[in-house]
Structure prediction request, 230 residues.
Amino acid sequence: MKRCALFLLLTVILSAQAAQEVEITAEPHHHLVLTNDQVRVFNVEVAPHSETLMHRHRHDYIFVTLGASEVVNAVRGKDPVTLKLQDGDTALLAAGFAHIARNLSGQPFRNVTIEILQDEKLRQTKSPWDEDRALNILPGGTQQILFVKDGIRVSEFELQPGGMVPEHHHAGPELVVSLTDYELRSDQAGNPPANISVKTGESSWIPGGYTHTLTNTGHHPAKFVTLEFP
Prediction:
């Protein structure tokens, strides 16, 4: 067993050293699903015991993990690192590296990768957020503020059936990544209610400048990650 693991690790190291780089848009496991002047969003899926091509990240990016997985992250010029990721794990990685991601598990490795296209500008922007981390208790749910980086506040919401996010204002745009299938109702003053039906892994870009409440109208908990831009 140890010999097999050592052979696998050496294989990953050699393949990472020998591989030629491709741009992220040319990496076949990265599927572009949304783009604008702020972000490029990719749905990533790597089959069991398979790996991506060596690809370069030229922008800071945030990834949101979909499902548990075990992955070898082989960054060019560094020793490979094995990561055990859980459903919903979210992090920001700084730009300027190329790597291969190899799926060690028997399940597909899936995530949503969000490139921050204005990362250089946002690094110089004063953050409008007061808290970098917090847990806010909502009526029938929670908002966990995971981190604030590049001026972007990243939160994970969980709403039980009937749970709601009380009235709040979105000054800037927001990207929402669903961790579960869910049905929500958005109530804005002066407008008819908007019903939102989303599948796991879908991403939505929402322009800012509005105030609303959100209610889980489905029969199951609703989980989603939000990226709030200044």
